[in-house]
Design goal:
GO terms for molecular function: 5-deoxy-D-glucuronate isomerase activity; glucuronate isomerase activity. The chain is mainly beta. The chain has a single domain, classed as Jelly Rolls (Sandwich), CATH 2.60.120. It is built from no helices and 26 strands. The strands form 6 sheets. It has a 7-stranded antiparallel beta sheet, with no helix packed on it. Strands 2-3-4-11-6-9-12 form a 7-stranded antiparallel beta sheet, with no helix packed on it. The mean pLDDT is about 95. It binds the ligand O=C[C@H](O)[C@@H](O)[C@H](O)CC(=O)O. Ligand LJL3ZJ5K binds next to strand 15.
Length: about 270
């Protein structure tokens, strides 16, 4: 298996958009989740035709105007940097639709994809409607923005969430996994992490490992890197002095987030 760590591409494409990351079934072991991160200079329009995939367009920074030919959302986006920690705007677009995104300012968008065969309405997910969640305690505290959680019926298979973790804390911790299609005990969800750190010279440690250690990769993750989680536990540790951000995309056979903690570390929750 190739490394689960992916560095930025910085690849110009024909639309003048700069492709920073592209993860899909052709360049990873993922079968459900695909992902693109794109920088758009002001005035540039990015167009895409979706086949049998749904897509959540997360306005990471800047402002964009979205249209699918029927629905238009003008000048959406709430922040100039992710570390403003404001929930941002996103748009859910279903399978077999064509969409355009025009950059009203310099903008960065994340395109989060998963399989979809039942076309659903295009939906604006307003940052103002996202209630920040303070999760964890002690040195496991993090701030969570549930952009497209499993209790939001707008999507068929896609889950999207962003997480902020302050220095000296861990997130996705105690280590948990969701890699067994065995509801109600556990769901099988592949996952991607798009990471940033503030200040940007920072790094975090992320380990991805299975009970039998057939997969056990510990990575130093730098600003702008991605980590692919095909299976296994996937904790993140944040060194003092830095704030960690990551955007998660999850998808699998069923759109349910039901995880289990590593039994060796579950005691931490009650400590
Ligand atoms: O499974 C979900 C992802 O690992 C993260 O979103 C994680 O849940 C974030 C956290 O709880 O710290």
């Amino acid at each position: 298996m190739d490394s689960l760590l992916r560095k930025k591409l910085n690849r110009n494409n024909i639309d003048g958009a700069i492709l920073l990351h592209e993860i899909n079934s052709e360049n990873s072991d993922l079968k459900y989740v695909s992902f693109k991160l794109i920088d758009l200079q002001i005035g540039i329009t990015y167009r895409e035709e979706l086949n049998w995939q749904e897509c959540c367009i997360v306005v990471m920074t800047g402002k964009i105007t979205f249209t699918d030919g029927e629905v238009t959302h003008e000048s959406i986006g709430t922040r100039n940097a992710v570390f403003e920690k404001k929930p941002t705007d996103s748009v859910y677009v279903s399978n077999n639709r064509i969409f355009k995104v025009k950059a009203e300012t310099n903008a960065r968008i994340a395109l989060c994809y998963s399989p979809s065969s039942k076309q659903l309405p295009t939906k604006l997910i307003k940052g103002a409607d996202i209630k920040p969640e303070h999760r964890g305690k002690g040195n496991n505290q993090r701030l969570v923005h549930n952009i497209l959680p499993d209790d939001n019926p707008s999507a068929n298979s896609l889950l999207v969430v962003e997480v902020f973790t302050e220095g000296g804390n861990w997130s996705s911790y105690p280590p948990h996994k969701h890699d067994k299609d065995n509801l109600p005990e556990e769901s099988m969800l592949e996952e991607t992490y798009y990471h940033e750190q503030d200040p940007k010279q920072g790094f975090v440690f992320q380990r991805v490992y299975t009970d039998d250690r057939s997969l056990d990769e510990t990575m130093t993750v730098e600003n702008g890197d991605m980590v692919i989680v095909p299976k296994g536990y996937h904790p993140v540790g944040v060194p003092a002095g830095y704030t960690s951000y990551y955007l998660n995309v999850m998808a699998g056979p069923k759109r349910v987030w039901k995880f289990n903690n590593d039994p060796d570390h579950e005691w931490i929750i009650n400590s």
